[in-house]
Write a structure and sequence with these properties.
Number of domains: 2
Distance between the termini: 48 Å
Number of strands: 0
Largest sheet: none
Number of helices: 5
Helix content: over 70%
Radius of gyration: 20 Å
């Protein structure tokens, strides 16, 4: 883990102040604030937010390959999120939101194809 820099930083921060027990518990948890298990899902929410924002664009401009990848990635990582230790509910939630926002976008695209008859 980067030559032990993160644990040293965590220990220094914990020793620098008399933290509330709840905060100290979160800092020391297996999926706490000093682990990748905490931060990755928070950054992945940007993909979900971008996909939700794309719901405002016309259906003909939706990228079919992109939405297929977003949907499949969401389902694959949702399954993975249920199998790993430590469990992260945020990781599971972000991937489910990715999958379902991708399904919604795919539905919009296929509905556009069905209505216009354009299967480009």
């Amino acid at each position: 883990m980067a030559f032990g820099i993160v644990p040293k930083l965590r220990d220094r921060i914990l020793a620098s102040y008399n933290w509330h027990p709840w905060i100290k518990k979160r800092m020391l948890a297996d999926n706490g604030w000093f682990t990748i298990f905490h931060w990755c899902p928070w950054f992945k929410w940007a993909i979900v937010i971008a996909n939700i924002k794309d719901m405002a664009i016309p259906a003909q401009n939706i990228s079919l390959p992109q939405q297929c990848v977003v949907t499949i990635t969401g389902f694959v990582w949702s399954r993975y999120a249920t199998q790993i230790y430590p469990f992260s509910g945020n990781f599971l939630a972000v991937n489910l939101f990715m999958a379902f926002s991708g399904i919604y976008q795919l539905g919009r695209k296929f509905n556009y194809y069905r209505e216009t008859g354009k299967w480009d």
